[in-house]
Amino acid sequence: MTAIGKTPPLLEVEELNVTFPTPQGAVDVVRDLGFTLEPGGSLGIVGESGSGKSMTSLAIMGLLPPRATMSGRVRLAGRELSGLTDRQLRRVRGDRIAMVFQDPLSSLNPYYTVGTQIEEAYRAHRQRVTRRQARRVAVEAMERVHIADAARRVDHYPHQFSGGMRQRVMIAMALCTEPDLLIADEPTTALDVTVQAQILRLLTEVRQETGAGLLLITHDLAVVSEMTEEVLVMRAGACVERASAERLFSDPRHPYTRALLDAVPRLDDEVGELRTVHGRGPSPAAGATEGDER
Amino acid sequence: MTPAVPGPQVLLTARGLVKEFSVRGQGGAFARKRVLRAVDGVDVELRAGQTLALVGESGSGKSTTARLVARLLEVTSGTVEFQGDDVTRLSGAALHRFRSEVQVVFQDPYSSLNPRHTVERIVTAPLVYQGRSVPGGARAFTRSLMERVGLNPDHSERHPAQFSGGQAQRIGIARALAVGPKVVVCDEAVSALDVSVQAQVINLLRRLQREEGYSYLFIAHDLAVVRQIAHRVAVMHQGRVVETGDRDALFASPAHDYTRALLAAVPRIRPEWEAARRARARTRETADGKRETT
Amino acid sequence: MARFLIARLSGVVLILLLVCLFTFGVFFVLSPDPAVQICGKNCTPELIERIRTNLGLDEPLLAQFFSFLGGLFAGRTYGVGESATHCAAPCLGYSFQSSQPVWDMIMDRLPVTATLAVGAAVLWLLAGVAGGLLGALREGTWWDRGAMVVALSGISVPNYVFALVLQYVLVVELEWLPFPGTVTFAEDPGGWFQNYLMPWIVLAFAYASVYARLTRANVIDTLSENYVRTARAKGLPRHQVIRRHALRPALTPIATVFGMDFAGLLGGALITETVFGLNGVGKMTADSISRNDQPVIMGVTLLAAFFVVVGNVVIDLLYTALDPRVRVNSA
Fold first, then answer.
1. Which ranges of chain C have pLDDT less than 50?
2. Does residue C265 lie within any of the structural domains?
3. What is the domain-level CATH number for residue A112?
4. With an 8 Å Cβ cutoff, is B252 touching chain A?
5. pLDDT for the residue numbered A154
6. Which single residue of A14, B2, B55, C161 has CA 20 to 30 Å from B126?
7. How many domains does chain A have?
8. C-alpha span between C306 and C285 (Å, rounded)
9. Which domain holds residue C222?
């Protein structure tokens, strides 16, 4: 990397704050979060439910619920996203940044064929595309994620696919516009473990092929340890520790990270009393966050 | 009756369990009804004071098997023997007695606890339904039960929504224990919980077994969790048990291809990182120990 | 597909038979002796006896039911010898009041009811869906509240009250519309339209209110679906997100409700027809009830049941076209 004409980072997040109004007052679900991701790099954000990890991804995409307020800066390849109008942001979403969600069944519209839904993603960002061209793109995208018989399957509806195949469709949909950044929010949480392994392998493979950066949001420490070069641990909306995967897993510095690692049941550990995390820290109040603490 | 195999006495034996559901095939309203065999000739044996884990992916029939054993579903064929009775044929008072011997803890604590009832009402309800008196009065009984599952006894007048997910699951466990069962069926009882909370609940289940001698039929898809709690493991795939064995033997040298595939698919943190982390933790502990002694 | 249709249609026949049996039971067994009613004031026991024989009322009940059914499918002959009259299939009997065949009476009035129902349906669908959509997309604003207040009043104000108010305002005060008369479309399309306009509005108002609330609730639910979030994440323009990903799933269940409502209306809009003096099935029913004209009431009941049952089958078929999840998996 040369000092002059240095390419800007793929994604820069600075002082990101997300606040939800609740009857008990405003709740900060993300506080002063900052990180950067170099082009083609990968970052995993791990945390338990209510840690604000999903809200972070939605904030980057500009998809926060209307009642949420957000402050801070999000830059994509040097371009400020936080000040953009909805229309300008729309051109970035799905084109430069694409997203894969947790539950592929509910994330695909049951009323349209998967082909239609992939074509839609492509045509939203390409001028003057014929139906036929869009369809070819859809079939190619499905082939790229190894859906057998893509030319026929393209006309099938989501309910005619298995869970793993649906997630492949979601990935195909994300990839068809050749995005620079892929955000995967718990992409394998709803899947069986054998299918999870296939989807994770696929994500690694497409990343190598396309050179896209990956932001992986998950609660599963083992999954990030396999998938990303860098890891950021979140708790109660704030970053607790951020390091390379190797450093974080071999030398966790923050007590919370240590406790979290201790609590994970393993296949090759001695069986004994599991260490538990004591206290859950300043937990944001209910409703605004995604889970456990109600 | 003397058990042929050494070790604890066999408490519950299921033989040749079959459960068929009639389902509509693909194509919705137009499809011919067809029969789906969810459980296909399953034999399981649960020993007193031990944990038998049923592991498998979605659709493997593990939950259906558990429900057949607890007689929440009627078998298509097969027998479940418990204390000399065939559970599948019990009715009336005998079935009532069986219900207080075998209890179930479900996956989602919130949806399986009545949100309008207090903890006290929830945990005493099974006794009231069965027309039994509550030993020592409802308040004292609830308090002691809450203490046993690690909840603050002063919260007996609270409603499920006022507890976190892990605490709510403890209420679910308390309710199961209220009638003094011998067998507790845990149907994905820790699957929805965050790792740190999950570890606490697993520790609780283990302690209760150690101190009070419960037998668990533990249904889970997470092999690492199963390894922390099971004495014996039965791996299910497509309605059948493909492999049964003692935990250590099964995890160390799985015999069936499917078991191997399942184990191989589990994501893990790199062993060298793990080793480095443990080594650091140990030196830290000894350092702490030294500091305390000085 | 063929198997499905056969199964459904045989179900329809069975249900209609049960409805026949039930209405027959209610009207001919539980109500006062029809022969006495027909006979009128200057009645002799002999006359009653003759009417009984003519109508077949002296036969066992089951036999009467089967001759009624036979009349429906094959026609039947009342009386014997010279006084015999043949009633061609589908025979629903004769009105006690006017002695006209019930079938003909219904067929005469059905076009009026159908016109009323179709016009009102168009109006209520447009207004209901538009109002509901406005409420959903502007949730919590004054637009939303305004639309829902109107909808609530549509549900709570009885429609004869609304009819009278509307008549007073539009006809008496503003003189925008003439007094309702009987004009056919062929004679004077403009007059015909003016004539039907108020009934359409009145009938549509209550339905539109229900549909607006339903649409609003469905659209709000759908907007929070994960696939709507996916559509936004893909960068689709807002109008496309709403039209394709929110509206279609939200409106599909409304098709079911609509089918039922519309089919039910073909059995007559009692109040609206009566208030506006429209000579449709509903008004005829109201008149027949007040005069205890049993064959007519029974005929209308059967007709209404027929529309509802058939409407249901049509909805099921339509649903398979609207929702891919229940669609046949064509190989």
1. 329-331
2. yes
3. 3.40.50.300
4. no
5. 95
6. B55
7. 1
8. 16
9. 102-326
Kindly report the nearest CA distance between residue C188 and chain B, in angstroms: 47
**Chain B positions in Cβ-Cβ contact with residue C4 (cut-off 8 Å):** 29-30
C199 and C79 inside one domain: no
- Which pLDDT score is estimated for B27? 44
Q: Are C275 and C163 in contact (CB under 8 A)?
A: yes
Residues C300, C248: one domain? yes
Residues C95, C296: Cα–Cα separation, whole Å: 6
B29 touching A (Cβ < 8 Å): no
B186 located within any domain:
yes
The string of pLDDT tens digits covering residues A67-117 is 899 999 999 998 999 888 888 899 999 999 999 999 999 999 999 999 999
* B206: closest CA of chain A, how far (Å): 9
H/E element holding A89?
helix A86-92
- Flag whether residue B27 sits within 8 Å of chain C, measured between CB atoms: yes
pLDDT digit string, tens, across residues B141-175 = 999 999 999 999 999 999 999 998 899 999 999 99
Pick from B24, B26, B30 the residue to mutate for testing the C interface (most C CBs within 10 Å): B30
ipTM score assigned to the predicted complex: 0.87
Domain of A115 in residue numbering reads as 11-263
Tokens 């009645």, located at residue? C43
Mutate to test the interface with A, among B110, B195, B288 (most CBs of A within 10 A): B195
What's the number of domains chain B is made of? 1
Q: What range defines the domain where residue B198 resides? A: 10-255
**Does residue C12 form part of some domain?**
no
Contact C329, B27 (CB under 8 A): yes
- Whether residue A291 is contained in a domain is answered as no
Residue A67, domain member (yes or no) = yes
